[in-house]
Amino acid sequence: MLICTSEHIEGKKIVKSLGLVKGSSARARNAALDLTASIKNIFGGEVEEYSRLLQQTRDQAIQRMEKDAERLGANAIVCFRIQSSTIAQGASEVVAYGTAVITEI
Predict the structure, then answer these.
(1) Which residue, 7, 10, 18, 100, is the most exposed by fewest CB within 10 angstroms?
(2) How far apart are CA 71 and CA 93, in angstroms?
């Protein structure tokens, strides 16, 4: 599945637009991550555990968006966007969305 942030795909002609596709994932921190993060807050530096958790959440949201597009018969997604928000203390949601399209192969 080709995914791009622009409305056009270089070298491809979009023959049909299938509409909005989306995928989301919500994850919560855990006590072990919070303890490690608290220690890193004292000394500084990247909180790698949170970075990994957020990357896994983004990846899952994108995979779910791709499945939504495949269900519609798309072979590409244009105008891809991703956003995150806090939904509760210690929990975040990531939403991936775009427009499913069929391109000439």
Answers:
(1) 10
(2) 23
pTM: 0.84
* Structural domains in the chain (count): 1
Looking up residue 87, the CATH number of its domain turns out to be 3.30.110.70
Question: Tokens 């004292």 identify what position?
Answer: 42
Exposure string of 64-100, with b = 16+ CB inside 10 Å and e = fewer, is bbbebbeeeebbbbbebeeebeeeeeeebbbbbbbbb
What dihedral do alpha carbons 12, 1, 57, 87 form, nearest 10°?
60
For the stretch 39-92, pLDDT in tens is 666 666 777 777 888 899 999 999 999 999 999 999 999 999 999 998 887 788
CA pair distance 15, 21, nearest whole angstrom: 17
In the block, tokens 């203390």 appear at 89
Count Cβ atoms below 10 Å from residue 61 Cβ, excluding itself.
23
